[in-house]
Amino acid sequence: MIKVQNLRKVFRVHKREPGLTSSIRALFRREWIEKVAVSGSTFSVAEGEIVGLIGANGAGKTTLLKMLSGIIHPTSGEARVLGSIPWKRENSFRTQIALIMGQKAQLWWDLPAADCFLLLREIYRIPEDRYRKNLGRLISMLNIGNEMNVQIRRLSLGERMKMELIAALLHSPRVVFLDEPTIGLDLTTQRAIRDFILEYRAELSPAMLLTSHYMEDIQRLCKRIIILREGSIVYDGSLRRVIEEYAPYKEILVHLRRGIGAVPDAEDLSRLGDVVECSETQVKIRAPRDRIAEAANELLQRFSVADLSIDEPEIGDTIERIMAGRPEEPR
Amino acid sequence: MRRYLRLYLYFLRFSFSRALEYRMDFWFRIVMDTTFYAVELLFFTVLYQHTKLLGGWTLDQVFIFVSGYLVIDAIHMTVFSNNMWWLSIFVNKGDLDYYLVRPVSSLFFLSTRDFAANSFVNLLMAGGILAWSLIRYPGTLGSTNITWFLFLVLNGAFLYYILHMCFIIPVFWTHTSRGMVMAFFAVGKMMERPDQIFRGWLRRVLVTVLPLSVVVSLPARVLFEGPTPEKIVHILGVTACAFLFMAWFWRLALRSYSSASS
């Protein structure tokens, strides 16, 4: 449903030194620099897939979404969304996509959501019966009550975001671009929106591209992620594989019974892996995945263990390292 | 076409509900525009105390011409002006995004979405002044002339919008339209004067490439001198060319839209 080939976007930015003198100089002569926002991205997204676009601020996530939704033109490269070139902005293309931006409102501030939805029905030419059905379904999925007739500006941020989602999905788009849909929301609303997105996907199977800085969004919604660094794709694959590939270890945490059995020695335990913590009551070791069982077995045999747990490393930490260009685990 | 009309009815409905929320602004605009109308008519009244004809027109003819301009200005203020104001801000802040993903003409959407309902009373007032100046005209004006004149005044309002828009569109490259808009209002003053007071190349420019005199002066000429095919084709032809230029310019500008970082 989405096919992207060597897509590139370069912005020309005016370079300006601070101070009045440089401002006056810039009136007559300007220095321009080229800022590569997206550098030759290639990927595709299939029907029913939710792909997470992850990257630090300025990595090119939003620029990529804006090119694929037809808002901005690329500098070079190709993209097809539902067979159309997005930046040609054909109506047949625009009726089948939706864009939701957590940081930008699309609804009329002074009007109740119900009025805004009527206008959208006209814009997307949604037949009356389908409109009623879709609206009813979305309202029940998002658990919205009387807020429909309240002016948008009087709604809470969470309620507004729910209305934004309804506004974007009323016309049953086949491709949905979600740019930080949970930003600034409380935990309960974040969870409600994640559940809604999953339910919506299960019902209608649209292709979805999601950007978020919240790992919870990514972990819960995306089986596949694309990591961007300075405009380039540095990882495209399953969320699970990112751990196996970039974090080839697990962490064993052992709670020891005080005063019973041997006292752990960090130097001695370093044979099993990296000793993160070693005290009379607690040992934490980061060991290679293929040696985790052996390490756990040795700890159980040598010490009086009250409790033992084996955990995956924090996925957020792993992704953060990839985004920062340090994929290897620090030793 | 009918779909766009239905959309426009929604815009009207929404704009009226919004405008009536802000009472002070509603009344203040009426006072402000009434003052503007009075100043325009007073200016020519004072001018005609020193001359009998201006560009070949008597005071009564100029009153009709000025009233025609006031109607065009009121239409512009009511239908387009707020949208023009917002457009520069939207481009500057990168807020066009949602307008560009909708399956309707972005130019239509951004030019008409905000109907200045609080200027609507002024539109009625300007219409009243035009009716008054037509009724008090001492000569005979045929019904065909009046019909053509009224139609061409509407065409003039559309042309006014096109010209204003052409001065705003460069904001896609300059990122601020203040200078261009001030330039438009400065040269736009020529719209408020009879075309015959201009001579030579300036007049040729004003009836072709920068058709400020086509907005209201040529329609007034149609009223007084009769609707010849040359005049009608000229006025409508210039408007059509200006519209095609604006549509092309708009598409070109959208290619340069860079939105804003999130």
**What is the CATH H-level superfamily of the largest domain in chain A?**
P-loop containing nucleotide triphosphate hydrolases
The helix content of chain A is 25-40%
* Total count of domains of chain A: 2
* Biggest chain pair interface: A-B, 32 and 25 residues
Could you tell me the radius of gyration of chain B in angstroms? 19 Å
Major sheet of chain A:
6 strands, mixed
Q: State the assembly state of the protein chains.
A: heterodimer
Query: Which spans of chain A of ≥5 residues are poorly predicted at pLDDT below 50?
Result: none
For the secondary structure, the number of strands of chain B is 0
Tell me the fraction of residues in β-strands of chain B, as a range: under 5%
> Per the principal axes of the C-alpha atoms, what is the gross shape of chain B?
globular
Structural class computed from helices and strand pairing of chain B: mainly alpha
Arithmetic mean of pLDDT of chain A: 87
Secondary structure: helix percent of chain B: over 70%
Give the strand order, joined by hyphens, for the main sheet of chain A: 5-6-7-3-8-9
Order of helices and strands of chain A: EHEEHEHEHHHEHEHEEHEHEEHEH
Per the CATH scheme, the topology name of the largest domain in chain A is Rossmann fold
- In sequence order, what are the helices and strands of chain B, one letter per element? HHHHHHHHHHHHH
